[in-house]
Design a protein that fits this description.
Structural class: mainly alpha
Helix content: over 70%
Number of strands: 0
């Protein structure tokens, strides 16, 4: 059971990290000049 649960938890943490990065990117593009972020 533990082996079945762990990958799911890992995937959830990865998804949470991805959503955090996306929200930070949206925040940067919305509230900061685009030229400040050449990425």
């Amino acid at each position: 059971m533990k082996q079945k649960f762990r990958p799911r938890k890992l995937k959830f943490q990865r998804q949470e990290l991805f959503e955090t990065l996306v929200s930070q990117k949206i925040f940067a593009e919305t509230f900061l000049p685009v030229k400040a972020f050449p990425v």
